[in-house]
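Hi L., both proteins are below.
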Amino acid sequence: MRNLNDFIVFAHVVDHKGFAPAARALNVPKSTLSKRVAELEKTLGVRLINRTSRRFTVTEIGEDFYRHASAMLIEAEAAEAIVKGRLAEPSGTVRITASVPTAQMMLAGLLPPLAQAYPKMRVMLHATDRFVDVVQEGFDIAVRDHFAPLPDSGMVQRRVANDAILLVAAPAYLENRGHPREPSDLSRHDGLLASLTSEGWTMRNDAGVVVRVRPMPRFLADESSVLLEAAVSGLGITALPRKICRAAIEAGSLVRVLADWEAGSVTTTLLMPHRRGQLPSVRAVVDFIVTHLPGE
């Protein structure tokens, strides 16, 4: 009979990307984990992990086996959650990944109150602008801000907010260069753009009229907070999601340009692996974000 504990040991070793970090996380000797995985490989008759003194790689068949072993681990966590009453009081660790701007602008204000609301839950946020494989890297939730629909990834997608993109500029810039009265006026203004290849902005008003405009490229940056600071300094007009420029508008350091028009919208979507999305703690985090996230 197969030892199902070995399946779980293998999943933990892959999750932590090595025997040593897995041993520290589980508080068991590294030799014990190595022995259990070796026994599992012997039972299955295949090599799951290629390991040397310097490298740790999962074989192709090991990757396939991991997906099922990790699913079994998640189901075990769900079963334990029900037994321990987690449906009433969520607990355990919830791993979240998001881009750096999303973490700073949205999650920084949401996660501390979440942690206070669920004292038995541990929230782990990984902020990065690199591509993250949610399933392979063991995350429960990925928070994505996107302009176009996300591709079908096989994960649960829950759209939680839609934020308008506004044109903004510093009052001093507009006093010096004049206030645009209609979208075509933007061609004579300095634009703070997200990239050199940007074709400008697609503007839409409440009547559904759509126009394409391109200001004179004055400053280029692919990071929203940099564009925000450039606009506040008076360099020109930029397009930013409302949640990023709201505080500056309220403080008076930025004002809206062409207030009857918007330059598109950005959607916030939560991505979850199917089985992890069933865990009570993950559902509690999702519900909290949906309830407290500002946006249309």
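That was the first. Here is the second:
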Amino acid sequence: MKIDFTYTKKDIDYVSGYIFKGKSYRCSYIRYKSLYRNPAPGTENVEIYNFEPKKDPRASTVILHGLGSRNIKFLLWIGPHLASAGVNTSIIILPGNYTRVENNSVSGRSYLYPDIDIMYQFWEHGVVDVLSTIDLLSQKNLWKENNVVMGYCLGGMIGTIAGALDERINHKLFITTGGYLPKIIHKSPATAFARALLNNGYKDPYYLNDEERLYKIYKDEFPSVKKMSFSEIVKDENIHPLFKIDPISYAHLLDMSTVTFIDALFDTTLPLKSRRVLYNEMEGAKRKMLPINHNIWLPFEFVLARYILHKLNVYDRNARKALFRPERVENPLTGMHIK
């Protein structure tokens, strides 16, 4: 079974409007028709919250959120503060999440729904939207050579594949993410719905319901997969289809000098082996293990924002102060302060 992360590049027609502004930045809501060939109904429009410095940006970052919706409000905090520090910051709403949930579904479900066709559709779509958003930012002269793509959980998984495809991404920062999809499907609390379907008789031709058989397939095939080129992975008809959407398959293709991998020691959302396998495949990258769980760092976004500035080599005092400065948001239509 083949997977296809390609799309036709073109000048992107988009709509954009400022939704609020601060002293040193403006936030615009950008929307354009996805360049993915087969979007699920309800996911056709790419949505971006773009925080643009009022002065010429010195760097760029794209933030990729995790599965579901709750983490997005925390990550949106980063935008105003990085933009105030001179970094154009774009937060993409991934298809199937938050305001882009497909019809008759719930946020995040389809990336791990136990049906290969559905999973392929959403992983393909997510990667295409990330790459085409970089196209749009380049088109608007907002994508700088000095840049970071930061992915949390699902965003890190999508970011791994995008990073293996696109040399325009200068640095990849992965936070509490994992791989080894058989273990995620059968052990993660986030996939309880998938196990319920499988336990109630839902089956497909690829043994997703057979936990032990799936582990054995991975054990037998992974040594070959991690020697393959990108083209070989996506086209090979003999490896298990899950490999083609699994970050552990693509990790060896990354330039590890451009990667930072931060794992959470007490993460219970992603199984230990899921995180350990990807961690091991990131050997040569800057790897950190922190005494946190999957979500506890979210209210402390300023630490992450400060680290992003570090990766962008932004060290001046004014930029650092911007991370801690309280933001007074203005209505762009009236210019009056609102709370």
